Amino acid sequence: MSIELEGLLTEIDHIAIAVNELDLAVRWYEENLGAICVHRELVESDGVEEALLKVAESYIQFVCPTRDSSPVAKFLEKKGEGLHHVGYRVKDCAKALEVIKANGGRTIDEAPRKGSRGTTVAFVHPKTSFGTLIELVQE
């Protein structure tokens, strides 16, 4: 392992699930799994409304499109409801993105950007990461 890569990922921030009805998904997890919704936010830049349910030090994130042109709307149309992406916490989003690109990785974001709940985020293309969309999350 490269020294530059050591400690790049600090933990899992969230598992994101794309849903058609945000309230229904939140209610099901609350009533059937005892999860508690701790945050809701409209993320205009991504065309989604999200809900975060706390699980230990991580979250289950439900994302629901607010417009037909959002990437989540396109995902739901093509694949239906289900796992959308995995968010990993990083100490430095810009550095993590730089390392991925330097190692030949394909990214969706060329530079980190503002995410929900005051985070800085960047996405790694699923073609680089074995079919899994990855979100890098810096708190």
Account of the 3D structure:
- By secondary structure, the protein is an alpha+beta fold.
- It has one domain: 2,3-Dihydroxybiphenyl 1,2-Dioxygenase, domain 1 (Roll), CATH 3.10.180.10.
- Helix content is 22%, strand content 40%.
- It has three helices and eight strands, in the order βαβββαβαβββ.
- It has helices at residues 22-33, 71-79, 93-102, and strands at residues 9-18, 36-43, 48-55, 58-65, 82-90, 113-114, 120-124, 134-138.
- Strands 2-3-4-1-5-8-7-6 form an eight-stranded mixed β-sheet.
- A hairpin with a 5-residue loop joins β6 (113-114) and β7.
- The protein is globular and about 45 Å long.
- The model has no long low-confidence stretch (mean pLDDT 95).
Features:
single chain; 139 residues; alpha+beta; 2,3-Dihydroxybiphenyl 1,2-Dioxygenase, domain 1
Q: What's this entry about, in short?
A:
By secondary structure, the protein is α+β, with helices and mostly antiparallel strands.
CATH superfamily: 2,3-Dihydroxybiphenyl 1,2-Dioxygenase, domain 1
Any guess at the CATH architecture?
A: Roll
Segments where pLDDT lies below 50 for 5+ residues?
none
Radius of gyration: 15 Å
Q: Topology, please?
A:
Blueprint (H helix, E strand, L loop, with lengths): L8 E10 L3 H12 L2 E8 L4 E8 L2 E8 L5 H9 L2 E9 L2 H10 L10 E2 L5 E5 L9 E5 L1
Parallel strand pairs: 1-4, 5-8
Antiparallel strand pairs: 1-5, 2-3, 3-4, 6-7, 7-8
